[in-house]
């Protein structure tokens, strides 16, 4: 091996040439016997599986660089051991110490392009001592801070405001459930309104530490909307002030409770923020406040390009049935999302037959997308022998059209969960087919609503993150 001079050297090195550090002081001595013992320790104690999952789903970060020194002609990784172990496990899942880890790693391996981790970026230090000083400075005096929750939310908000993303696309791209992002963006809106009202650093620190929790319990629910006089937009996380004077006055009055001052003039709001206590405090702060009995819904009606009417509920109703699917799969094709949007944008009362017909189109489009765009063991699912009968004749010739009845049957057979499998089995393509081709079969509003409601969990199942999808099916059949 070429002798390294007294300079740091940046290069890419084969994964197989990199070794774990048996002298790593950040790992207990009992776990530094050999590489397998280090791998076992890091798996059990340092969340290596999350790193492996992130690499498999999002790729190996191009900015990640491991610090290496050369000892006895071996390249030893001094900083970046967890990342190195994750890569070694993805390359060879059988290195894991438990069957549960191995099973998950085999799934991750099949969705990862192994070329990404074949060569790893490293920087070679002149010596271990020099490297350790650098590592100490990186971890004890970090040049870069991890983003706080507030900074992440501001980033999400800016993407939505710039119209480069919707709340759906942001939640999918950053793997944050849409419902959580909606709530957090509303809390952010109040954080930004309260912050300028505070004059001391102590109060600002209180707002940052406990404010989000208090905002969620006190002013984000329906009683808070009633007390302050505002509505919230689910699609952007914006708040719409309905009565400016009331909003400003009451927000100023409630802020001490947001800052965790639990007793003001004898009116106590305990740490649990019980609804009855909140109502009493609201009545104390605003003599005109009336106890919340029901939510007033405010709608914005939009006529879309295809002529259908859709409603956007700014104040959500509790206990309502889900009317649109939420999926976690990233970067689905815009054409596919448009089909889903059109299906759920049609009004059941006026376009019942069209909505039922489009339900079948939507199911088939989503299913075909998943089969054609999902990789397993470096092959598209469509190209596996398992799905062959849906696309090819018995003699191996390509069918003129995809056999969706067969494709649905094959996909359903893979599902391991009983309830999910039954939901797919119950979704009758033939019945929907009749509504398209038999004019004597008429579909009413209830048929349209029930069909699209039953379709929601199927879409959400198919458009899971790929890792979660593979955990939900019998992958041993994928040959």
Q: Would you mind describing this structure in some detail?
A:
There is one protein chain. This protein has 3 domains: 9-140, no CATH class; 149-285, no CATH class; 327-477. The protein has 20 helices and 13 strands. It has helices at 35-45, 48-58, 81-91, 99-111, 128-140, 149-161, 167-173, 178-194, 201-218, 222-228, 244-258, 275-285, 334-345, 352-373, 388-391, 404-414, 418-426, 429-437, 445-462, 466-471; strands at 9-14, 18-20, 66-71, 74-79, 119-124, 230-232, 239-241, 263-264, 267-268, 299-303, 309-313, 375-376, 379-380. The strands form 5 sheets. Strands 1-5-3-4-2 form a 5-stranded mixed β-sheet. The chain has a two-stranded antiparallel ribbon with strand order 6-7. Mean pLDDT is 83; it is low at 293-320.
Helix residue percentage = 40-55%
Please give the domain count.
Answer: 3
- CA distance, first residue to last residue: 43 Å
Gyration radius over CA: 28 Å
Shape: flat
Q: How large is the share of residues in beta strands?
A: 5-15%
Question: What is the SS-derived class?
Answer: alpha+beta
The helix tally amounts to 20
Main pleated-sheet profile: 5 strands, mixed
- The total beta strand count reads 13
Mean pLDDT: 83
């Amino acid at each position: 091996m070429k002798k390294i001079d007294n300079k740091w050297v940046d290069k890419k090195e084969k994964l197989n040439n990199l070794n774990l550090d048996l002298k790593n002081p950040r790992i207990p001595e009992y776990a530094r016997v050999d590489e397998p013992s280090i791998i076992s320790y890091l798996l059990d104690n340092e969340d290596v599986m999350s790193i492996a999952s992130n690499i498999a789903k999002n790729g190996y970060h191009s900015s990640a660089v491991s610090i290496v020194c050369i000892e006895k002609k071996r390249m030893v990784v001094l900083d970046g051991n967890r990342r190195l172990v994750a890569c070694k496990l993805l390359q060879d899942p059988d290195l894991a110490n438990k069957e549960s880890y191995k099973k998950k790693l085999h799934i991750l391996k099949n969705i990862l392009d192994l070329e990404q981790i074949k060569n790893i970026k490293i920087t070679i230090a002149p010596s271990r001592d020099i490297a350790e000083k650098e590592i100490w400075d990186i971890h004890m005096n970090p040049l870069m801070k991890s983003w706080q929750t507030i900074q992440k939310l501001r980033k999400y908000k800016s993407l939505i405001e710039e119209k480069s993303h919707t709340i759906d696309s942001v939640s999918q791209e950053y793997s944050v459930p849409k419902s959580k992002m909606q709530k957090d963006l509303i809390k952010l809106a109040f954080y930004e309104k309260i912050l300028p009202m505070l004059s001391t650093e102590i109060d600002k620190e209180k707002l940052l530490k406990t404010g989000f929790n208090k905002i969620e319990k006190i002013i984000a629910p329906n009683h808070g909307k009633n007390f302050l006089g505002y509505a919230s937009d689910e699609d952007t996380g914006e708040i719409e002030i309905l009565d400016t004077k009331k909003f400003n006055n009451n927000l100023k009055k409630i802020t001490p409770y947001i800052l965790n001052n639990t007793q003001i003039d004898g009116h106590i709001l305990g740490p649990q923020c019980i609804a009855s206590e909140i109502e009493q405090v609201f009545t104390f702060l605003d003599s005109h406040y009336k106890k919340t009995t029901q939510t007033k819904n405010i709608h914005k009606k939009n006529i879309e390009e295809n002529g259908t009417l859709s409603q956007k509920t700014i104040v959500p109703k509790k206990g309502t049935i889900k009317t649109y699917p939420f999926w976690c799969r990233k970067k689905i094709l815009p054409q596919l999302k448009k089909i889903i949007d059109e299906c759920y944008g049609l009004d059941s009362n006026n376009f019942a037959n069209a909505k039922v017909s489009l339900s079948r189109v939507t199911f088939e489009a989503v299913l075909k997308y998943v089969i054609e765009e999902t990789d397993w063991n470096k092959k598209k699912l469509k190209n596996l022998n398992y799905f062959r009968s849906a696309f090819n004749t018995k003699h191996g010739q390509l069918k003129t059209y995809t056999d969706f009845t067969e494709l649905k049957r094959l996909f359903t057979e893979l599902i391991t969960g009983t309830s999910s499998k039954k939901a797919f089995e119950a979704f009758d393509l033939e019945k929907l087919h009749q509504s398209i081709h038999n004019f004597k079969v008429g579909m009413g509003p209830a048929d349209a609503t029930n069909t699209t409601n039953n379709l929601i969990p199927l879409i959400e199942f198919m458009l899971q993150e790929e890792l979660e999808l593979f955990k939900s099916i019998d992958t041993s059949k994928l040959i």
